[in-house]
Write a structure and sequence with these properties.
five-stranded antiparallel sheet, globular, disordered C terminus, 14 helices, 15% strand, alpha+beta
Amino acid sequence: MDNMHWWLVCLKGFRSTKIYGKGNTGDKDELSDDNESVSSSDSHVSYIEDDQDTTSTTLKSMIVGEALWDHSSLRKDHLEFKAGDLIEVLQQNGKWWKGRTDSGKLGWFPADSIRLRVSQEADDQDSKRELKLAPRRMTILQRMNTMSGKPKLNPDWVRQKVIEEIINYEEGYVKNLRDVIEGPLKEARLRNDLFDETKIDRLFSNIEELYQFQVKFVEELKKRLHSVVYKSQIGDTFTENHDKFVDIYSRYCNNHSSALAEYTLLNQHMVYAIFFESCRLLKDMESIPLDGYLLKPVQRICQYQLQLKELVKYTSQSHPDFTAVGEAESIMRRVASTVNERKRRIENIKKLAKWQSTIEDWRGEDILVKSSIMLHSGSLYKISAGNKQLRRFFLFDRQLVYCRKLLASGKLQYKGRISLDRCKIEEVDSELGITHGWRMENTVKHKWVVLLSKKASDKDRWMSAFKEERTQIEDDKANNFTISQHLRARRMSKLCTKPPKNIPGLGN
């Protein structure tokens, strides 16, 4: 885009809409549920007639969705929930909806954080979930089951609708990815004065690879469509692409927080805000900011599991797709769980950075250089060089940090750390007069300390936590989980840290 054309687009944007404003509202949302057909090119596909009365007046007054991921907020009027929770939708107001959880809490939440069920019927898994709920009030599930006059849905009709939803969502999703690639990404590569390769990689990650995969994936889905939609066999499309889902989405989701941080930083400058909005107008994209588009792959990977879960429910055991759909749901549930866990882990690094800022006299590398989660903490006696000292210990992935409590202020003062990647932990013989203790040895420097807990139960909890730490490391390797050093450094840069010094203690 030449400079004159670029500024003309900017002027067009400011005349027609404010930054991130209403924009072009005449276009139909590509992800709209009102889209009844799979595709205009699939006119040969026949459908079950929609003239059956599948809902009653009572059912229309109750809309239930399932949470795609955890939602937390510091605002009192926001609704907090966990991935998989049932949410009753009470009010739909643009991008923010009002809802109620089974605990009775009311609040607002992002509309794109839940998926509305096609069937609006309770299933067996809901019944198991109901047993865990407090019996003080009627739950969402109970009210779904007690709606009078509600006819049972035709399973084949629901199966057809879920398959249509999957295909329609895929087509809209692929278009969203293409718009990002042909819009902001393409234009950013032409603006060397604004974007270097590092900025581009940080913002867009492997979105082009993801797009190419999704184009082929939706083609494979369409090939498996039967002329009578509910007879279609689409389960193996997911199982055959399991490794690609894990690999491609893992890398994208790992970078997502870095992308949002980069976008937020750039968008604070008017020249970048105008650039992003101009790209949106040039491609006639939906009137949402770029970070909304960058979130869509994370949303989609979570939607798959809920769509397949409903598809399993309405696929009879005699259906040739029954086994494959069950396997597909299980696979995508694990992938979605991994995405949610990574989201929690990345959000957690902010807490670790804040924790470090409360420690007096911190020395050495920042906690986030090697760690991303705190697994356990507690007071222990540390014995080394003949000295016995009471210290406060904090167990993170890859390291154990210990501090001293300052009597005057009550704050914690940094004293040292132990690297767990080169550490051997072994029981201490009680015949030596030491109980509830264990020895930790640096296998490289051959230094060691003995740690003592006050009670046997405390020791058991520490031993369990050390095993959990090693398991966490192995799981991270297996799932290719990483948090970029750029994101770690950015979190720490917001806090005041002192210059690095040599670190006393074991493992440095």
